[in-house]
DNA sequence: CAGTATCCCGACCGATACTG
DNA sequence: CAGTATCGGTCGGGATACTG
């Protein structure tokens, strides 16, 4: 693993990391890692996300060029979301992150409990 | 890459991802990836972080068992921070994330500009 | 179905001052 | 040096209602 200098790592990269690190982006990207999904599919797949926040998150990811929004002009409306090539370069990292969180949930819970006990 | 079911990926893991994904955690973890650092070293290394937020971030990471805080009882105070074994398991992922952000800054900027122009 | 549009509360976080 | 304490503004984000 190469390490960037402090300046490289911390200055502009922080802006980008803020994006990836907001409340819902990683989960949305993870769900789109498996392929194309519609708005309502994502809403169902992500417990707790509000309609507003799903919209906002999707727009932000689209603006950043990470996902593509495809509108099919039919009635009722049909909109598909999938990863762009740029978004696909995040697939591995996002997957690793979600797997890490899943694998270390209990360790973190234990650490918190131990910390709070003191 | 194995994909977790929606439920596995989204429920409890979201709590953990919120931690990793907050404003400063990734940057602090990244800086500690290179080894032990003192409070003021981190403060200098991370432009824009306030004293308060560095303290809060370090406490949270310590509580979650990701970093270790070592107080040397001398005057003036000397406190070291480094990754725990659990924290070390995040090293690769955090490094990949920071490198990704650094490598794709321009693409994202271009995507934003293009999106905003429409 | 896939959104907009508002309202509004609470937390996040920066600024500042103080301390063992 | 490495914090803690307090204040206050901003804004993330939930709830609700409405629409092409």
UniProtKB/TrEMBL annotation, chains A, B:
The keyword Nucleotide-binding does not apply. It holds the Pfam family HxlR. It comes from the Bacteria. Keywords: DNA-binding, Transcription, Transcription regulation. InterPro entries: HTH_HxlR, WH-like_DNA-bd_sf, WH_DNA-bd_sf. Signal peptide: none annotated. The keyword Nucleotidyltransferase does not apply. Residues 11-109 form the HTH hxlR-type domain. PANTHER family: TRANSCRIPTIONAL REGULATOR, MARR FAMILY, TRANSCRIPTIONAL REGULATORY PROTEIN. This is Winged helix-turn-helix transcriptional regulator. It comes from Nonomuraea typhae.
């Amino acid at each position: 693993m190469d390490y960037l200098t402090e300046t490289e790592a911390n200055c502009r990269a922080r802006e980008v990391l803020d994006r990836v690190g907001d409340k819902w982006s990683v989960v949305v990207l993870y769900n789109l890692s498996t392929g194309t999904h519609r708005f309502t599919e994502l809403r169902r797949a992500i417990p707790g996300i509000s309609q507003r926040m799903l919209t906002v998150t999707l727009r932000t990811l689209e603006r950043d060029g990470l996902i593509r929004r495809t509108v099919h002009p039919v009635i009722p409306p049909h909109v598909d979301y999938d990863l762009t090539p740029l978004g696909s370069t995040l697939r591995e990292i996002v997957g690793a992150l979600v797997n890490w969180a899943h694998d270390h949930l209990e360790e973190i819970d234990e650490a918190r409990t131990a910390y709070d006990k003191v």
